[in-house]
Specification:
One of its GO terms (cellular component) is plasma membrane. It contains 4 helices and no strands. The chain is mainly α and 121 residues long.
């Protein structure tokens, strides 16, 4: 994998893990099950992001494999759906799972804000 892509994936994952640990601990103080749902959502989002980066990098470097991208996408969506079904028994748990999943987008936003000063040089 390209060094810049590795750096991007690592930095976003590191930010996501840090935010996840802090948020999970805070949420778990009030309700452990909500904390677990949040943690699972964030973990699934991180795994999804990393798998997506790996698959796309392999396809780009081999210049073929559109089927791999599609199959990877379907498998990752099924994994997300599976966990969504598990947390559907309680709407609040489902909400915390989704919030954990969305936290990953916040990590990406933080990463872009963090590298912006370096891009202007």
């Amino acid at each position: 994998m390209n060094a810049k892509i590795k750096s991007l994936v690592f930095s976003i994952t590191k930010t996501n893990i840090l935010l996840t640990i802090i948020a999970t601990l805070l949420i778990s103080l009030f309700n452990f099950r909500f904390g677990v749902a949040f943690l699972v959502g964030s973990a699934i989002a991180t795994i999804n992001f990393t798998a997506n980066a790996i698959v796309i990098n392999k396809v780009i470097s081999n210049r073929r494999g559109a089927l791999k991208i599609q199959l990877s996408f379907v498998l990752r969506m099924l994994l997300i759906l599976l966990f969504t079904l598990i947390f559907m028994r309680d709407v609040k748990e489902l909400a915390f799972y989704l919030i954990g999943f969305i936290l990953h987008q916040i990590s990406i936003f933080i990463y872009t804000k963090k590298i912006r000063p370096y891009k202007k040089q």
